[in-house]
Amino acid sequence: xxxxxxxxxxxxxxxxxxLATVYxxxxxxxxxxxxxxCVPAKREGSNASVLREEFINGEFDEKTYRDTLFRLNGTLGxxxxxxxxxxxxxxxxxxxxxxxxxxxxFTLPQQFNPKYKQxxxxxxxxxxLRTYLWRxxxxxxxxSLALVFLGGLVxxxxxxxxxxxxxxxVGVLHLLAGLCTLGTVCCxxxxxxxxxxxxxxxxxxxxxxxxxxxxxxxxxMMAAALFLWAARSHRKNYTRMTAYRVA
Length: 247
What we know:
The chain is α+β, with helices and mostly antiparallel strands.
């Protein structure tokens, strides 16, 4: 028989875990981790159509797509890079064209491409720190989601078996998932800061996707704390009741 306090802790922990999973999944799948904005004069002086064509269909090169992000108010995510360009008009050139967002996804091989200290110089020295930071920011959120999913499976099995013991393992899995989520954000921010300084007239800011990942971290940690507390308290109570019956 499970005490109402422990059952309430499990329910609240499960809800927090679900919210954290949704937030982190949305963050991983969206492109608004970091956004760039440039002054209008710099944006208007660039050939948007040429930059767009090179951004979408050109060869993958970090310096090339970063420069395009700088000049066309781009956004950067874990799996996406996007730019803001005027919508195409086949009949006439609009004086104030409507802006649209065009995105290109990173392929799996591109995610594991090495980074160089001089971006664009593929014959130069590899920047190992940025290379592994980028790879960690791609892998860690997937590990975090996998740990939460595994914790959910363990919890379901525990309910079917009517056992409270696996709750401790569920709490540990959520604790590790929270650390992976925090590591994702730290690796992303460190990688952005280690890249070459922003050009003059370009400003960078954090996007809402990154804030979703940040929110999911404390939710996972609170869920882990509730699971661990419930498992520990129930075990102490069970040991005390067993000793009382023996006595």
